[in-house]
Design a protein that fits this description.
34% of the residues lie in helices and 21% in strands. By secondary structure, it is α/β, with parallel strands linked by helices. It has one domain. β6 and β7 form a beta hairpin. The radius of gyration is 16 Å and the shape is globular.
Length: 195
């Protein structure tokens, strides 16, 4: 039902879908940005429905606890995340990717619809640990376009790789531009810079 609704919203609103997961990739991490509105979910869901790989995405466990809504979200690829504990989500998600059949694990790296200058970096470490590429996906409200691709393989040089991520989203316009910020990292989170 959510896929039908997302298709209707996508078509009626005049949006278009460009790109796909690059050929030869059967497992990957997809990062989707900007994420400043709940409507992003429907545009992303439509794009996911059209991609050649099944998708899984992380969502707050509270959403899955709602009986009807939770069943719909699970049916479209939702995986609940309990954000109250100190579980090693990176290791768990990397293991999931290694064991799964062809799949794309989707992350909104901002981690919130509010302004967040320091994106969540779990997507990066999951891809690095699972040895899978990161595929860029963007929701451009200025162009009314969802774009999937290109991709890159993380190297382990965090600052350099995050500069690649930053560049991929430089010209994308969010639904609410005042809530969207591109990340800048001099080094891996927690490391001291220039000392």
């Amino acid at each position: 039902m959510l896929r039908i609704l997302s298709t209707i919203i996508f078509k009626v609103s005049g949006w278009k879908l460009e790109g796909d997961i690059p050929e030869g990739i059967d497992k990957c991490v997809i990062i989707v940005a900007p994420h400043t509105s709940n409507i992003d979910y429907f545009f992303g869901l439509y794009a996911a429905y059209k991609l050649r790989l099944p998708i899984r995405f992380l969502i707050k466990q509270e959403w899955l606890n709602m009986f009807f809504v939770g069943k719909l979200i699970k049916g479209t690829g939702g995986v609940g995340v309990d954000r109250s504990g100190k579980k090693n989500m990176v290791a768990a998600m990397a293991d999931f990717l290694r064991r799964a059949d062809p799949v794309a694990l989707v992350f909104p790296p901002e981690g919130t619809r509010k302004l967040n200058a320091r994106w969540k970096t779990g997507f990066y470490y999951v891809a690095l640990k699972a040895k899978v590429p990161i595929v860029f996906a963007s929701l451009d409200y200025g162009e009314k376009r969802v774009t999937v691709g290109p991709s890159f393989m993380p190297t382990g040089d965090f600052a350099r790789d995050m500069a690649v991520v930053r560049e991929a989203y430089r010209h994308v316009k969010a639904r609410y531009p005042h809530k969207f910020s591109l990340p800048y990292y001099d080094a891996a989170p927690g490391k001291v810079v220039n000392e």
